[in-house]
Queue: 4 jobs
Job 1
Amino acid sequence: MDTTVEQLYGSKVRKYFEVHNVVYKILTLETTEETKSMELVLHILEEVHKFGLDRRTEPIIAIGGGVCLDSVGLAAASLYRRRTPYIRVPTTLLSYVDASVGAKNGVNFCNCKNKLGTYTPPIATFLDRSFIQTIPRRHISNGLGEILKMAIMKHKGLFELLEKHGKYLLDTKFQSRNGLACHGDAALTTTRLAIQTMLEELAPNLWEDDLDRLVDYGHIISPELEMKVLPSLMHGEAVNIDMAFMTYVSHDIGLITSEEKNRMVQCMRNLELPVWHKGCSLQLIKKALAERFKHSGGKLRLPLPTGLGTAGMS
Ligand SMILES: NC(=O)c1ccc[n+]([C@@H]2O[C@H](COP(=O)([O-])OP(=O)(O)OC[C@H]3O[C@@H](n4cnc5c(N)ncnc54)[C@H](O)[C@@H]3O)[C@@H](O)[C@H]2O)c1
């Protein structure tokens, strides 16, 4: 469990386990992008070993943001006795809509983002939006970056929801409230649509054999950028800068109209996401594109918007 989550929710979680007569041990972890490494994974493995876990009947439960889910996932899913069942409990908006879905886990290595990892799905993911009420506003924006990715690529209705309710969702931290009819249950609808569109993209291609992935939108330049300027940009912020850049590319090559481009960039701004960073130099962009080329079968395979909620590969 992430240390901040432990401080906020540890006593509730303990009570829950005790009521259900669960034999458990909570291991608290400093999970940040800087600590997301094999050292952290080895530390988790040592503790799991000391606990004497029976992998046939006792799952490991990861409770925290994306860094916690990814690191525990790698330790449990693939390394401890080759495979140990694990459950994801995402506690940030970004991990709720993105790291909760799919099979991937991984840690940073040699200053490269998620360079070591595997594709091993959890046995379950438990979604509880109430955790999100304690995350800072900037972290809500961070998660909105990944929701916006799915909206621009696949779902015009989701994009319009973000245009209309984005500020409200930021203000209310994705908690469902009664009495504000004009917003309906925007938190529930938005997160459902985001996860559903994410599942539609990931499920048929869990092992990423097909390299043409729309979910890579925002993930071409951002890995390079995020690691270079660490810790100044959060994951979803770096993703958004990449998306903003690619939106301009799309417009320049005639795939989207000026109005569509402006609506996309305006929506990013309304969600309080950065659209540029001084570390995003031409040199960095070229390096990131060269990496992409190398790992994508000799093609760039850029997912680019072709409208609001539609996309193609270029
Ligand atoms: N495996 C995947 O498919 C996948 C998908 C998307 C992102 N990721 C990874 O997820 C990571 C980013 O995840 P993140 O944005 O959740 O960041 P994070 O895990 O670093 O968490 C951010 C901060 O939020 C705090 N926190 C967590 N839950 C909280 C709560 N309920 N209340 C208050 N504070 C809380 C944590 O202590 C931490 O400091 C990146 O490393 C990215 O690579 C993985």
Note: The first strand starts at residue 60 and ends at 64.
Job 2
Amino acid sequence: MSSSNQPASSPSFVFGPVPSRRLGRSLGIDLVPMKTCTYNCIYCQLGRTTHPTLERKPYIPEEPVIRQLETKLATLSSAPDFITFSGSGEPTLNSRIGDFIAEVNRLTTVPVAVLTNGSLLHHEAVREALQAADVVIPSLDAAHPSLFQLINRPHHSLSFSHVLQGLKKFRNEYAGEIWLEVMLCRGFNDDEQHVEKLRSEIEKIAPNRVHLNTVVRPPAEEFAFPLTREQMEKAVQILGGNAEILPPECPSPAAKVHGPIDREVLLLLQRRPCSLEDLSRAFGVPEKDMAAALRKLRDKGAVAYNVYNRTVFYKAGQKIGNNLSPGR
Ligand code: SF4
């Protein structure tokens, strides 16, 4: 675990609403500690995986999550567009994800989305647990095992054929929406032949939508490069059908934040590096005010930054835990 991503002393499992390019205003629920995943993707915006595992277990207590969600829903001026299981790693590693989805559905009519790498869908229990979600967003970046190893760097016991089988089985059993994400990294999985092979695998999975993405935030590895707009357009043409390029920005209006925004900014930066522009838009705060808030947080060590693609990205700093008031 990189020290900049240490969990806060009083963990907050609910964060946002954050602007999402796919989901509008998305209220996030984080079911695993930073950074617990079955993969270690070269492009991961959370950095390298510090807890690679295939072990499904509860990971976090249920009661505070539900309490935080109830409080958050009660204080928002308008309902979020989605409640999304995502955050610090792979949410289906949490063996109680089905119970959490059921609890969210009991509390609210806001639709539920699950952002997953799809690697555990070959387990019947995982496929069953996701049945009550409205949208499941799995990923598939490679059409053959060697590229899978290069890009996703999976847990050593995870086989590519199991991942593909899991995605296909889930499609057969799940009546909700599947929006498949394909992350393209220049020089790895973007050549024409490979994208054609991806298309044929995707046809077998039959997702409702295919979202093409590329590296837009600082990646775990500096050799994970983005595609140009032109290269993305070429890839989307090859994929055809229901494939589309994810827009660079979230179309939804900013979230209304009650009280000081520092805490909300830090909760977001724990899970996603953001530019000044991202943060300003996410919280509906003028850039000069957000810059002043970030300067103060940086001076306290709660926020750090790095430059990627000629843009400054802010992320959680080493002393973030000292600057988060107790979880609600
Ligand atoms: S991008 Fe997602 S699947 Fe890949 S390592 Fe990061 S959290 Fe895990």
Note: The first strand starts at residue 14 and ends at 20.
Job 3
Amino acid sequence: MTAPRSVLIVGESLAGTTAARHLRTLGHTGPLTIIGAEEHGAYSRPPLSKVVLKDPAADQTLGLVLDGIDVDVIRSAAVAADTRRRTVTTADGRQVGYDALIVATGADARRLAAPGQRGELVLRTLDDARQLRARLAHAGSAIVVGAGFLGMEVASACAARGIPVTVVDADRPLERILGDHLSAEITARASAHGIRFIQATGFATLTGDPVSGVALPDGTELTADLVVTCAGEAPCVGWLAGTGLADRLGVGIDHACATTVPGVFAAGDVTYLRGDGTRPDRRAPFWSNAVAQGRTAAASALGLPPPGPAQDDYFWTEVAGLTVKIVGRLPLLGEPTTVQGSVSDGRALLTWSQADGTSTAVAYGLRRPVAALRALAATSLPPPP
Ligand SMILES: Cc1cc2nc3c(=O)[nH]c(=O)nc-3n(C[C@H](O)[C@H](O)[C@H](O)COP(=O)(O)OP(=O)(O)OC[C@H]3O[C@@H](n4cnc5c(N)ncnc54)[C@H](O)[C@@H]3O)c2cc1C
């Protein structure tokens, strides 16, 4: 493949800025343009739920800088793409051509409000976090819909402010990703921190207009000053309508971050790794993947070999003051091998053997460099039968 003259990246966040930096590092000297929809430019999202909800000073520390690299930034949403003519149209009426396109438009929060129902709160952007922080300052009670990592982080922020908070989900806290064993421990820890959990028998619906509560399938109705939906994310693919690039899961990519359309690559939360008959399609909307895929998409756009795997299985979260770092495949099914410490004491190093022969290493409330966890995951053997 001949190296492309111009590269266009759509999405100015972690995957997009990583790709831009890597394109220049790899020697791309031609035109490089980023189209981004957010007026704040690129910033880091993990601190939104961990520190921004508590501390307004944190707003100033989130920027993902482009390190003075030579890139044109257009701050307007992409509204359409024509992959035959190789152009992208923006909301402010520009038409930007490209030789290679990197799709990095991430995801938005999945919403549960009925059409026309006002006042649903979510947490995906800096503006969402600011709005939520302002509401937390005056809230006497809160409900969080969704007990995944984001829901538990938001509930932790409520509890840290002394706000009584109820988390509602059909599955126990973090069970879908961390499995039974850690879910039980985390539920107990969260409860000790004042986070109440209600296991619903199905989907909760938001009540009130503006939203002021939830209704559970068994008829229970709950109300609170603050109701926050943390029900997962929806890939931002509306602007790709008609291109055949996207489906329900997002933009399908292979190990080189290539899509099914020549000259188009994708990275980060907008993507899923296409299955190959032995493996199912797999979404992994985490920080380390956006970085790994930003680099891979940059290399592939220049016709170079991928610098590493297109999915990097490192993830972390913070629940009720406890940090959990994980390297390896999720979910964590069955019992772990305890390498050090004990989960009930809130400090443990654990490994899980996965069905595909890989291992997952977890530092639970224990400070461990990610490199050490990677080494542990790489060397752990399955426990004896
Ligand atoms: C509150 C929160 C906490 C998190 N905590 C963790 C954590 O602890 N650990 C972890 O591993 N991961 C965490 N994540 C996930 C992590 O932040 C994401 O995986 C990462 O941000 C993905 O980066 P991305 O660049 O692919 O997408 P995004 O960060 O979603 O960025 C996509 C960008 O594209 C823009 N865009 C969308 N559509 C268009 C369009 N049509 N035109 C132009 N621009 C567009 C968006 O405005 C956005 O700026 C967290 C996420 C959130 C929201």
Note: Residues 10-16, 35-38, 45-46, 48-49, 77-78, 104-107, 123-124, 150, 236, 239, 268-269, 285-288, 290, 315-317 surround flavin-adenine dinucleotide (CB under 6 Å).
Job 4
Amino acid sequence: MSSQPPPNETGTRSSLQYAQSLDSADPLRHLREEFIIPSKADIKRRTATKDAATKNDEAEPCTYLCGNSLGLQPKRVSEYVQRYLRVWGSKGVFGHFTELEDQLTSPWLDIGDDPKVPLSKIVGAQSSEVAVMASLTANLHLLMASFYRPTKERYKIILERKAFPSDHACYAVESQILHHNLSIDDAMIFLDPTESRNHYLPTSQILSLIDAHASSTALLLLPGVQFYSGQFFDIPTITSYAQARGITVGWDLAHATGNVPLKLHDWNVDFAAWCHYKYMNAGPGAIAGLFVHSRHGSKTDPTAADFVPRLAGWWGSDKSSRFRMENRFVPIEGAAGWQLSNPSAIDATAVIASLSVFEMTSIEALRERSLKLTGYLEDLLNSLSWDGRSKPFEIITPKNAGERGAQLSVHLEDGLLEPVLEYLEEECAVVDERRPSVIRVAPAPLYNSFEDVWRFVQIFHAACGKAVAQTSRSGKEQVVASSVLAEGGKDSHGWSEIK
Ligand SMILES: Cc1ncc(COP(=O)(O)O)c(C=O)c1O
């Protein structure tokens, strides 16, 4: 935080002036200009297009701290997608292979290769270790088809009890276990947070569970950053500990990619998968990404004993022979050998456009900025005053900045969530909620400003104040009502008779 000016030069840390001074001193502040920040009027309007009634004073930006759910749109996505449409419109099928003087992406036959270099820098991989394809859950299934090969001795999967539902019981992991005719009661091993309120999972607890099931576990599948608590797991320590006990290790990086620096190759991770619609800003449901370590992906002879089997498709087969239709699968070396279909070009175009914004900086510089933004959010939340009453919320994300990404999860007192959300919505402060009591607040490293954080905290403070007043008023009414009932008297609603 050394680059931040001392508070007395620019007002107190809790002033707007101070937040603005942090923005002026921020070397990455220009990146915000790359994004479309919805205005308050945009958020409130019931149409996507502006109408004549939009007033000038409604051009004020909303306070968007929801990049953990859906990242905002980079301005250049529109230009890239328009160009794609023009190529399709003017070239038809030739768009697959014709190099154009004004192209923004490779011809569609090679478009899947364009993201590899910029993406590999974000996840810390060799470019051949990443592929852009399909969707996150589909990729987890494809990777488990390769890396979850249960035997009589090793068949368990360790995962967290509070995993995102798509990965969890009933869905990806459970269905994989059932697919192998195994019992989910026996084969699914859950990590349960000791503290149910904050969902924190200490590394030591994860390592102990690995030890407890070391000889019977085939796979460990964990999130890089936990979606609910925002905890950033110690990926290198957990990976090497499990691998040393013969366990294959995969990571769901939905909330980690573009948020925190990763070194998947150096950490020797077996495989990983992620989406591109959160911190990667490529739009809802955008084509996803996966990583396969080179020690697995470099084996390309399907007849060799060390070849990693896979559910193959023609797009994973060698480009030079792909169109010869020889019905012989010759996998491309690396993660690309897991591709099934020709990728959606419009979708890949959005990912490439978004990656070009990441190319304006580095993931390390973004992390530095993110630590400051989230630290500032935490400081402001902790310094709010509550007129003598206790704070009506608790930050459940780890305090240690090394154990979290951009997101802070805020656990509200019982009954406060709905009124708080109502007020935030009224004021166009966009966050997301996990009922019954948590809001997740994520200053995105690429586009949120210190002023966004400051504005959010003002709105949140007022929202909590209102919600507390509202719930204590209704609480008092209930106390009066129940004391009347306890005395056996008649209340104005006739409740005692009903009782
Ligand atoms: C941690 C995690 N895993 C899996 C998913 C499911 O992703 P998809 O719908 O893209 O398959 C999500 C979605 O938000 C997620 O947050």
Note: The chain has two domains: 7-64+363-473, 81-358.
